[in-house]
Amino acid sequence: MKKLNVKALVSIGMLSSIAYVLMLLNFPLPVFPNFLMVDFSDIPALVAALIFGPVAGILVEFIKNILDYFMTGSATGVPVGHIANFVAGILFVLPAYYIYNKMRSKKGMVFALVTATATMAILMSILNYYVIMPAYTIFLNMPAMASPDLRQMIVTGILPFNLIKGLMITVVFMLLFTRMGSWINKQHYKSA
């Protein structure tokens, strides 16, 4: 594990602030439930991971969600959505980081991001079925959804939403990476 120096900590703080602002600029997709929102706040976490290592990416995800929870709150009173966002971010950033480190090229980054999208979408569907949706029903004092209804919502709503969101993040990140890739790699080697 890399030891984070002052430059890394300041950069993580700045990237966390950018991620928080990007998290505020969220929007729904028309065909999905309103509680599913697209934002591009995982991009700064991915940049942090690529430059400073996986711990930095996790810290950006954590700080972004802590800031959002304290500034905007939660409908349930507990940060179930923020925890879900944190886990989804980690499930996206870490596979992308580890795969890209094995295949350091533009094609490697595309493969890493597509794999990270699939990983995040599948694992978040499983977590939504067993943990996140039941937690929402408990904290909102709502009746639990019947298993077939919940499965239907995950298969037709949550899974495709996460796939589309991941692919949108992939496209935006690749637009940045084509311009900043050599700089990110140079910073990575400086911080190593």
What can be said about this structure in brief?
This is Riboflavin transporter. The protein is an all-alpha fold and 192 residues long. The protein contains six helices and two strands, in the order H-E-E-H-H-H-H-H.
Question: Could you characterize what this model shows?
Answer:
The chain has 6 helices and 2 strands; from the N terminus they run αββααααα. It is mostly helical and 192 residues long. The protein has a single domain, classed as Arp2/3 complex 21 kDa subunit ARPC3 (Orthogonal Bundle). The chain has a two-stranded antiparallel sheet. A hairpin with an 8-residue loop joins β1 and β2. α2 packs across α4. The mean pLDDT is 90. Belongs to the prokaryotic riboflavin transporter (P-RFT) (TC 2.A.87) family. InterPro entries: ECF_trnsprt_substrate-spec, RibU. One of its GO terms (molecular function) is riboflavin transmembrane transporter activity. It is a multi-pass membrane protein.
